[in-house]
UniProtKB/TrEMBL annotation:
GO molecular-function term, one example from the UniProt record: oxidoreductase activity, acting on the aldehyde or oxo group of donors, iron-sulfur protein as acceptor
Lineage, opening ranks: Bacteria, Candidatus Kaiseribacteriota
Keyword field contains DNA damage: no
Protein name: Putative pyruvate ferredoxin oxidoreductase, gamma subunit
InterPro entries linked to this entry: Oxidoreductase_gamma_subunit (IPR051626), PorC_KorC (IPR011894), Pyrv/ketoisovalerate_OxRed_cat (IPR019752), Pyrv_flavodox_OxRed_cen (IPR002869)
NCBIfam families: PorC_KorC
Species: Candidatus Kaiserbacteria bacterium GW2011_GWB1_52_6
SUPFAM superfamilies linked: Pyruvate-ferredoxin oxidoreductase, PFOR, domain III
Record has Oxidoreductase as a keyword: yes
Domain called Pyruvate/ketoisovalerate oxidoreductase catalytic: residue spans: 10-188
Keywords, comma-separated and alphabetical: Oxidoreductase, Pyruvate
Superkingdom, taxonomy of origin: Bacteria
């Protein structure tokens, strides 16, 4: 099973991103075979807009019997708000060598991310700027989902970018070209410790 945790704040679209990811990856095939079983589950309570919230995605070759959130054994964590990665331990529960993808202008080697060095692979992408440049949302509320998904596909190497492009065309259907451009730009420019992802 491959587990992805999405950390964000209320109103940033973490729940939507988890749902999109689950729908997009259902039945997709990679070098380990198809993932016929996927699930997504948000966790939030009476928190107000802006409060930290988490969402969870599971991909599996076998029936998924786990329900709800998981705090341990994540293979990847996607952080929609860089402050959460800087001021908390966003890698808590992330397996050694797992992926920590942060929506940030900072380089992964920046002092702000030093606490993760040697534990996990830190990758950053300025998804806010990419979204705004492509007309997805506005300066106060950029819609970063497709940019972050493009970056995640690059660093995880789970699937090809064509899977996301097809999903944008058939399921998202709004601002198709803008979403594809944002995904491609993020795919091409995501950085990890040591430089641009190869």
């Amino acid at each position: 099973m491959y587990r992805i945790r999405i950390n964000g704040r209320g109103g940033q679209g973490g729940k939507m991103m988890a749902e999109l990811m689950a729908m997009m990856l259902y039945g997709q095939e990679n070098e380990t075979g198809k993932f016929p079983y996927v699930s997504s589950a948000p966790t939030f309570g009476p928190e107000r807009r802006g409060a930290p919230v988490d969402a969870f995605v599971r991909l599996s070759h076998e029936e998924i019997r786990e329900l709800g959130p998981f705090q341990e054994s994540a293979d990847a964590v996607i952080v929609l708000d860089a402050d959460l990665a800087i001021h908390t331990d966003a890698a808590k529960g992330l397996r050694d060598g797992g992926i920590l993808l942060v929506n940030s202008q900072l380089h992964p080697d920046d002092e702000a991310f030093k606490k993760y060095a040697g534990r996990v692979v830190v990758a950053t992408i300025d998804a806010d700027t990419i979204a705004i440049r492509n007309g997805l949302g506005n300066r106060t509320t950029p819609i970063v989902n497709t940019a972050l998904l493009g970056a995640f596909i690059r660093v995880s190497k789970l699937f090809s970018l064509d899977v996301l492009f097809q999903f944008i065309k058939t399921e998202i259907k709004k601002k198709v070209e803008a979403n594809k451009k944002a995904a491609q730009e993020a795919f091409d420019s995501v950085r990890h410790s040591g430089g641009v992802v190869s």
